[in-house]
């Protein structure tokens, strides 16, 4: 319920900052937070499927909020950056979201926040593992997995890669 209440397009203050859909806002925020960043990294970090990220990137490019430049090492890869208009919108969105976060976090002590974020991380990890395991089982049964299910498996493997 809380995540539905906090949806970016439901928060009137955030919605008034831009006409972007939540998907484009999430991708713009991810680019601003990690630029230069590749679309595949955005998909992994935000757990959005690659098709959704691709659509958002196309829209942000058409609105002239981001730029795409060829990677210097991997020539077939494009890195995404915010341009000046994108940076300005990113700062507005981040400031509004930070203000909202501070207000929400004020109901918890620092210790409660630490416990809460630990629990959320464990639930996220378990959810990812559960979905990846289910998808793997269906693939073992011979079913053709949709792209989003293949990505769940890949994300889970990437998240749980053991250091050498």
Structural features, described:
It is a single chain. The chain is mostly helical and 164 residues long. It has two domains: 107 residues, Winged helix-like DNA-binding domain superfamily/Winged helix DNA-binding domain (Arc Repressor Mutant, subunit A, Orthogonal Bundle), CATH 1.10.10; 56 residues, no CATH class. A two-stranded antiparallel sheet has the order 1-2. Helix 3 crosses helix 6. The longest helix has 31 residues. The mean pLDDT is 90.
Give me the secondary-structure topology.
Layout: H1 2-5, H2 12-15, H3 22-34, H4 39-46, H5 50-62, E1 66-70, E2 78-82, H6 84-105, H7 110-140, H8 147-159
Antiparallel strand pairs: 1-2
Helix pairs in contact: 3-5, 3-6, 4-5, 7-8
Can you describe this structure in just a few lines?
The chain folds into two domains: 1-107, Arc Repressor Mutant, subunit A; 109-164, no CATH class. Helices cover 66% and strands 6% of the residues. It is built from eight helices and two strands.
Name given to the CATH homologous superfamily of the largest domain = Winged helix-like DNA-binding domain superfamily/Winged helix DNA-binding domain
| Alpha carbon gyration radius | 18 Å
What distance lies between the first and last C-alpha atoms, to the nearest angstrom? 40 Å
Strands, total number: 2
The major β-sheet equals: 2 strands, antiparallel
Kindly estimate the percentage of residues that lie in beta strands according to DSSP: 5-15%
Main sheet: strand order: 1-2
Q: What is the count of helical runs?
A: 8
Globular, elongated, flat, extended or rod-shaped: what is the shape?
globular
Order of helices and strands: HHHHHEEHHH
Structural class designation: mainly alpha
């Amino acid at each position: 319920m809380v995540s539905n209440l906090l949806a970016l397009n439901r928060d009137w203050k955030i919605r008034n900052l831009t006409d972007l859909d939540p998907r484009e806002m999430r991708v713009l925020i991810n680019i601003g937070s990690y630029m230069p960043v590749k679309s595949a990294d955005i998909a992994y970090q935000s757990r959005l499927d690659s098709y959704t990220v691709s659509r958002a990137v196309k829209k942000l490019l058409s609105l002239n909020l981001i730029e795409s430049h060829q990677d210097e090492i991997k020539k077939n890869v494009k890195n995404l950056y915010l341009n000046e208009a994108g940076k300005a919108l990113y700062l507005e969105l981040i400031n509004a979201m930070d203000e909202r976060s501070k207000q929400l976090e004020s109901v918890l002590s620092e210790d409660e926040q630490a416990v809460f974020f630990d629990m959320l991380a464990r639930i996220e990890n378990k959810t990812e593992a559960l979905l990846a395991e289910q998808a793997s089982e269906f693939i073992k049964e011979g079913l053709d997995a949709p792209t989003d299910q293949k990505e769940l498996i890949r994300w889970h493997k990437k998240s749980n890669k053991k250091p050498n």
